[in-house]
Amino acid sequence: MDASFTPEQDEIRRTLRELLRRRCTPEQLRAALDTPAGHDPALWSALAERLGLPGLALPEAYGGVGCSATELALAAEETGRALAPSPMIPTAVLTAPLLLTLGTAAQRAELLPRIASGHLTAALAVPGPHLATALALTGDNAGDWAGGGRAGGVQARRSDGDWRLYGEVDQVLDGHSAGLLVVAAHTGGFARSRTLLFLVPGDAAGLTRVRQTALDATRPRARIQLRDVRAELLGTEQSHVLDALAALGDTAAAVLAAEAVGAADRALERTVEHVGQREQFGRPIGSFQAVKHRLADVYVQVQAARSAAYYAAWATSHGERVGGLALAQSLEALRTAAAEGIQLHGGIGFTWEHDAHLYFKRAAGDELLFGPVHRLRAHAAEAARLFERAEVAV
After folding, report:
1. Are residues 199 and 268 in the same domain?
2. Which residues, 6+ apart, have CB-to-CB distance to 368 below 8 Å?
3. What is the per-residue pLDDT across 98-113, written as a single tens digit (0 to 9) for each?
4. Which cofactor does it need (predicted)?
């Protein structure tokens, strides 16, 4: 493994950081959060036109750039630094890979070029509290996480040759504004139910979408209600949906880990800047040894998380699945950096007007969506049969 970045990868980082520095200032970020979409469509268009961000990891045959998960992780680290609200995670990380893996030739040809160009955004509609389970990050995804039968959720039935969806899903990332929904639904009745994925246009009859209040406003989400909604099956009834979701989960975890690293790194930078200016007893508090030690610990944690995130991104194309562990380490680093930032900013760090609380809410919100950390690690240990090996050694 060559740990150094190529000139092309460095250019992606440089260009994206410069664009976000100009187009996603704290003031612009807050203004975007207050819009109905929860993000700036003009910024998303700029990211698509200048960097091809929505199609960064899509094949060139579908209008993408043809890069690997590493480049996607690089982009995510920069959007994480800025806490940039955008459809990138729901569209490019969670949905596009499923369309590429499971979609029929016609579905891929119709949808992927539109996603790669930035003209179509998409969202994966699975129950928010079970997103980590659906992606096999915190447990086996073969259970009833999608609902169906007595568990509620979304159910699919055939009617006159068409598929019809019924049910409700909460906490769908970007679900209120996405042009396409990929909905996980159960079919086959209670006794023989199984999970399939369905394509639902954002303007489908019988579909209701309501934006929900979220702890982390930079990740807008919605409640999706489906009442006799006509849907198109993604792929075929023989598609290995659960395997595809598990494979997606590992790549998504690596990208999300890099995003968390970017947020943690920026939170640490802002804190270092502040302690160099804030004075107590006639000197900057950053000159106190105790403060230096605390920030040094955060720095080491962030750098370790960065190494783990990029190793996980590299490993996705080499048959290794370590995304969950990298995500756990990165979420822990973000939580620590955000908490130390608030503490060392003093009273101002607790106010709504200051940006420090945005990083803390990103840390807490991501753990609710993709974690928590201890479950990510526990599942990784179980998958590696770590405790079984320890018992044998004893």
Report:
1. no
2. 215
3. 999 999 999 999 999 9
4. FAD
